[in-house]
């Protein structure tokens, strides 16, 4: 059975389908010694090369892996930075074969939950607007916030790139002019949370993502630390994203030991408040 070339490359953990289509157009991909084209389909018998290096096709028993990371402020979401700033990839565990793909981004001044996966298909599905997968944030707002403002933010505000809104706002702790809120939205445009609040004449001075879909940031995962999800949680995430992956969800004894050791290490220090 043949599949689209960019899907096979994404399943091998090389990137999102959109990014891999650019690789194909730019001539970086070959199939059976011939330059590949958009629309090509391949089978497990075909030889695929990217930049001259062979690509191992994932097959149907490959493990989909997902890592959660508690991003500190000051890190950027690119692999390398010409200015030498730290990136979110610096502290992730090594991945062979393939590479970690970011599921969405956070700007340099935003902290909290980031998801990484070796599956381009899962990453693309999690980010696609049609899935309307929720993101939840803790946000500290400087300025007076009244009920009328909260109504406007949940009914919809016109930004420069279109209408936007929060699907839910919960009032948290703080004073009248510097208060925490929990907000939920079902898309992830650039700096959208900040821009929504700023459209009402108030300032966001702290922002932290605490949930993406059905994955919450555990209180025991501190800033700059990562935790790999167990297969049952990854399977649940795939179901939410509509990814029908025929993969091996079982754990080897070595993998089970690795998960348990990591969990014991993180949980032994006790919980870390979300809004630290």
Outline the structure in words:
The longest helix has 15 residues, at 253-267. Helix 1 packs across helix 2. The protein contains 7 helices and 17 strands. The chain has 3 domains: 3-54, Roll (Structural Genomics Hypothetical 15.5 Kd Protein In mrcA-pckA Intergenic Region, Chain A); 66-129 and 214-267, Pseudouridine synthase (2-Layer Sandwich), CATH 3.30.2350.10; 134-212, 2-Layer Sandwich (Pseudouridine synthase), CATH 3.30.2350.10. The protein has helices at 5-11, 17-25, 120-127, 147-155, 192-198, 231-241, 253-267; strands at residues 3-4, 29-31, 34-35, 41-42, 48-50, 53-54, 66-71, 101-103, 111-117, 135-142, 157-159, 162-164, 168-175, 178-185, 203-212, 215-216, 226-228. A hairpin with a 2-residue loop joins strand 15 (203-212) and strand 16 (215-216). It is of the alpha+beta class and 276 residues long. The protein is globular, with a radius of gyration of 21 Å. Helices cover 24% and strands 27% of the residues.
């Amino acid at each position: 059975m043949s599949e689209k070339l960019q899907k096979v490359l994404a399943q091998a953990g090389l990137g999102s389908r959109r990014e891999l289509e650019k690789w194909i157009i730019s001539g970086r991909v070959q199939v059976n010694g011939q330059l590949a084209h958009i629309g090509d389909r391949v089978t497990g018998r075909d030889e695929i090369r990217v930049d001259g290096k062979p690509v191992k096709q994932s097959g149907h028993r490959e493990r989909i892996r997902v890592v959660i990371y508690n991003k500190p402020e000051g890190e950027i979401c690119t692999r390398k930075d010409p200015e030498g700033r730290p990136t979110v990839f610096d502290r992730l565990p090594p991945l062979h074969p393939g590479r970690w793909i970011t599921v969405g981004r956070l700007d340099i001044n935003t902290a909290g939950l980031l998801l990484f996966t070796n599956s381009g298909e899962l990453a693309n599905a999690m980010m696609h607007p049609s899935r309307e997968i929720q993101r939840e944030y803790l946000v500290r707002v400087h300025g007076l916030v009244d009920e009328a403002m909260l109504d406007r933010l949940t009914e919809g505000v016109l930004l420069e790139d279109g209408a936007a809104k929060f699907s839910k706002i919960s009032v948290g702790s703080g004073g009248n002019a510097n208060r925490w809120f929990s907000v939920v939205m079902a898309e992830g445009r650039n700096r959208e949370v900040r821009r929504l609040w700023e459209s009402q004449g108030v300032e966001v001075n702290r922002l932290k993502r605490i949930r993406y879909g059905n994955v919450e940031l555990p209180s025991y995962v501190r800033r700059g630390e990562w935790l790999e999800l167990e297969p049952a949680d990854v399977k649940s995430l795939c179901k939410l994203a509509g990814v029908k992956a025929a993969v091996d969800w079982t754990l080897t004894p070595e993998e089970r030991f690795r998960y348990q050791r990591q969990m014991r290490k993180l949980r032994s220090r006790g919980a870390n408040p979300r809004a630290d």
